[in-house]
Amino acid sequence: MEGGIATSDPLPSGDQHPAELTSQDLYTLGEKSVFLIQGRRPDDFIGFGTGFLVDKEGAMGVTNAHVVEGLSAITGRFNSGETAALHVIASDPCTDLAVVHFSSDLPKQAEALIFGSSDAVKPGDTVTVLGYPGTATQNLAEQKLLITSGLVNATKVPARGAGLPEYKDTIQHGATVNFGNSGGPLLDHHGRLVGINTLTNLGSQNAPVQGQFYSISSDSAKTEILDKLLKGDSPNNLGWAVEEYYPGYFASLDRSRGPALDTLLGNAGIKGGLYVKAVTPGSGASKAGIKSGMLLTKLQNTSVATVAEMCAIAESILPGAVAEVDGINLLADKDHFGQQFHTEFPVPGKH
C-alpha cells in the first residue's frame, strides 16, 4: 500500500509470475471496481464518463478531470445497478486527473484496482479497456460495462486532442476507447492498472485515422494522485471549467440561435478563446465575477485559445499569486452582452 492505494511489485521472473487473467476474469474484476459517472452542468448538459476505485476503505476513485469538471449532483453507478453519490476531492485540468469520493456506502463486492507499472508494458502486449461508452440506446440508466482489448502500439507517447491538455506520457494502443470510456482503466493481462483511458485520435476530415487510442501511463498518474490529488490539492485548477471556442462553436450547440452569436463574435474579430461552462462556487474566479457563459481571451495578459495554452500559463502561476483574466461577456449577463472585462483573483494555495 502507498498512500491508501495498492501498488504491485515488479513481476518476478520465471514461474513465479501471477496467473494471467482471461477476458471473462477481467470483466468480473471490472464489475467490482469500475463505475459509470454522471452529472449535470449549469446549462443542463448531462456529462458522463468512467471511473475506478483505487482505495476501498477510503471510498476513493480516479477519473479524468475533463469527465467531472463543471458537473454537479454527480453519481457513480456500478454494473450491478447500485448507485452512490460522488463528490470531487481534487482535480488537475492540466494532467487531466481527478480524485472522487463516494459519500454513501459502496457495494459489498466493491474492489479497488491494483496499480501496476506502465514501464513494464511493451509494444505487442495485450491490454484491456473497461468502461461505459455511449451505445445505440443512449440511455445511461441502461448502460452496461463494456470491454475491449487490443495490442500496445507504443509507450511513452506524447499526445494531445482537441479541447484537452498535452499528455506527456501515454500508452498508445488498439483497445477501443469511445466517448464515455474517458477516465476508465487500462489493464494488463494480470488485471493491474497500467493506464487511464483518455483520448481517441480521429485524425482530420481529409486524413481520418482509425484504431489509435491513448491512455495516461499509470506511473505518471500515480505520482500525481499520491503526491497531490489524494491529499486534496488541485494544482492548476483556477476554478472554472472551459471548452475551446472556434468559429461555428455556438452553431454546433444551437442551430437556431447559435449562428447569430458566432457571427457577432466574428464581426468583433474574435476567432478563439475559452468558453466558460461552469465556475466552482466560492472559488477565487467566482468571487472575481467570472461566470458560466463568458469567453476568456487572455490569462496573465497572454492570449489563450486552447486548453494547452491555458495550462502552459497556469503551471507558471505560483500558488498565492494573482491571476489576471480578460474576456468578453456573452451569455452570462444579457444586459452586458459583448462587453469586455478584466478581473483579478488570487490563485489557491500558499507560496
Automatic annotation (TrEMBL):
Its EC number is 3.4.21.107. Keywords: Hydrolase, Protease. SUPFAM superfamilies: PDZ domain-like, Trypsin-like serine proteases. GO terms for molecular function: peptidase activity. GO terms for biological process: proteolysis. It comes from the Bacteria. The keyword Protease applies. InterPro entries: Chloro_Bact_Ser_Proteases, PDZ_sf, Peptidase_S1_PA, Peptidase_S1C. PANTHER family: PEPTIDASE S12, PROTEASE DO-LIKE 8, CHLOROPLASTIC. This is Serine protease Do.
